[in-house]
Specification:
By secondary structure, the protein is α+β, with helices and mostly antiparallel strands. The chain is built from 1 helix and 9 strands, in the order ββββαβββββ. The strands form 3 sheets. A 5-stranded antiparallel sheet has the order 5-6-7-8-9, covered by helices on one side. The longest helix has 52 residues.
Length: 163
C-alpha cells in the first residue's frame, strides 16, 4: 500500500499520475516553449509598433481638421482668422498625445500650431515630438486654408499615403 502513495524528498514533492508517471515539464520543454514565445514576440512587435504610429498619425490629422473647423467658426463670428490658438479656445502651445487629447509636452506625440506668414493665417501644422519623431515616413502634417494637405518625411512625394 505504501508503494502507491506519492513520494516526497528533499527536492520537493513529486506527483504521480499513475504508477511510475511523473507530471510536469522538463527543462528542455520549458526552453522550447520560451523560444517559441520569443519568436512570436519578435514577429509581432514591429507590426504592433507600426499600428501605434499609424493611429497616432490619425490623431494628428483629426486635430488639424478640428483646428480648421474652429478657424471657420471664428471667421464667421469675427470676419477675420484667429492668429493664436487661445482665440480658438485651445491651449497655446497645443500638444496632443496619440489619442488627440491635450497633454504636457513630455507626454505628447505632436505639437499643433497655426501657420502664420507675416501675421497672416495660412493653415495649421502638426509637428511630431518624442517617440513619434521617429516616424520618418510622415513627419509634419500641414493643412492650408485652401485645403492643400502636405507632409514632410520620406512619403512627402505622395501625401495621400499619410493623409
Amino acid at each position: 500500500m505504501s508503494d502507491s502513495l506519492p513520494k516526497s524528498g528533499p527536492g520537493g514533492a513529486r506527483s504521480y499520475l499513475g504508477q511510475g508517471r511523473q507530471v510536469g515539464f522538463s527543462l528542455i520543454e520549458m526552453m522550447v516553449a520560451l523560444a517559441i514565445a520569443a519568436i512570436q514576440l519578435y514577429v509581432a512587435l514591429p507590426a504592433y509598433e507600426h499600428s501605434v504610429v499609424k493611429s497616432t498619425r490619425a490623431a494628428a490629422r483629426m486635430a488639424l481638421l478640428d483646428e480648421m473647423s474652429r478657424q471657420e467658426r471664428y471667421i464667421d463670428n469675427n470676419n477675420r482668422y484667429g492668429t493664436d490658438l487661445g482665440e480658438l479656445g485651445l491651449p497655446d502651445p497645443y500638444y496632443i498625445d496619440g489619442k488627440g487629447d491635450a497633454v504636457a509636452p513630455g507626454l505628447s506625440a505632436y505639437r499643433v500650431s497655426l501657420d502664420l506668414v507675416g501675421g497672416t493665417y495660412r493653415g495649421v501644422t502638426a509637428r511630431p515630438l518624442n517617440r513619434q519623431a521617429r516616424d520618418s515616413g510622415c513627419m509634419s502634417f500641414s493643412l492650408s486654408t485652401v485645403g492643400i494637405r502636405t507632409v514632410s518625411g520620406s512619403l512627402s512625394g505622395n501625401p495621400r499615403d499619410c493623409w
